[in-house]
Structure formats: structure tokens, C-alpha cells
Design brief:
alpha+beta; 5 strands
Length: 140
């Protein structure tokens, strides 16, 4: 069953975030009050959504491209699915993007042992790798 998140789902979403962080060996601190505040904003924002399945989530927002305001993107901000419902979440995201006037959808991926599986799924759905991001702490 797929639903859109409400305030009562926030604790469940937080649980998924912690599971996601464990699965990918996320080494950054998750500040629960800040994350909770972000989730509240997303639930309230008509240009954002959080989809839930029995054991998964996908959060996304609608934004214009920074260099072309007519090109509207639906950007996945986070996704976690332990119940095999990842494709259900992606399809809901794509439908939501279309309903909200997006021209393109953007899905992200973090490096894991299963990244190649996700990459193949994305490619089968017509996604192309466009950008790879690199991060490091600011040196002081």
C-alpha cells in the first residue's frame, strides 16, 4: 500500500532514515530535530511530497532548474525501500512529477554494494547518468 506522509508518519520516516544510514555506513550525524523540521516542511509544502510503503519511503520536491526557470525538475531527495517496493515508490514519484508540471525527474544514488542494481533499474526506466558528486570536509 502506498500513501503520502502526514504528521503522524514522521516517527516512522525517522526510523527509515536510521535504517538507511546503517545500511550504507553513513558516517555523518543525523540531527533528529533538524530532520524532523525538514519532514514537517515537506509535508506542508505543496511542491514536496513523501511517499510511504509498508517498509519504505521516497521524498521529493519540485524545483526549477537554476539556469532555466521554464524547465521544472522533480528531484528525489531520499529513498529507502526494504520491502521490495522501490519500483512502486519510483512510479509514484514519476506520476507525482507529471501531475505537478515537471519536465524531468531526477533520482539519486549513494555508493553501496548494490549501486549497480539500482543503476540498471534507473537505466531500464530511461534515466541517464548526468552528474556524479564528490564531497569532502572544508579544510581549516
Amino acid at each position: 500500500m502506498l500513501t503520502e506522509a502526514t504528521y503522524k508518519d514522521i516517527d516512522r520516516i525517522l526510523e527509515y532514515f536510521y535504517k538507511f544510514a546503517q545500511n550504507i555506513s553513513f558516517d555523518e550525524e543525523i540531527e533528529t530535530p533538524a530532520l524532523r523540521e525538514t519532514l514537517v516542511r515537506m509535508i506542508e509544502d505543496p511542491k514536496s511530497t513523501i511517499f510511504l510503503t509498508t517498509c519504505g519511503m521516497l521524498g521529493a520536491s519540485i524545483v526549477p532548474k537554476y539556469y532555466n526557470s521554464k524547465d521544472i525538475l522533480a528531484v528525489e531527495m531520499f529513498m529507502y525501500a526494504e520491502d521490495g517496493k522501490g519500483l512502486t515508490l519510483i512510479k509514484a514519484f514519476e506520476d507525482w512529477a507529471k501531475e505537478n508540471g515537471a519536465n524531468s525527474t531526477v533520482l539519486g544514488s549513494v555508493p553501496t554494494k548494490r549501486s549497480h542494481i539500482l543503476e540498471k533499474l534507473y537505466q531500464r526506466r530511461g534515466y541517464e547518468k548526468r552528474e556524479v558528486a564528490y564531497a569532502r570536509p572544508v579544510l581549516r
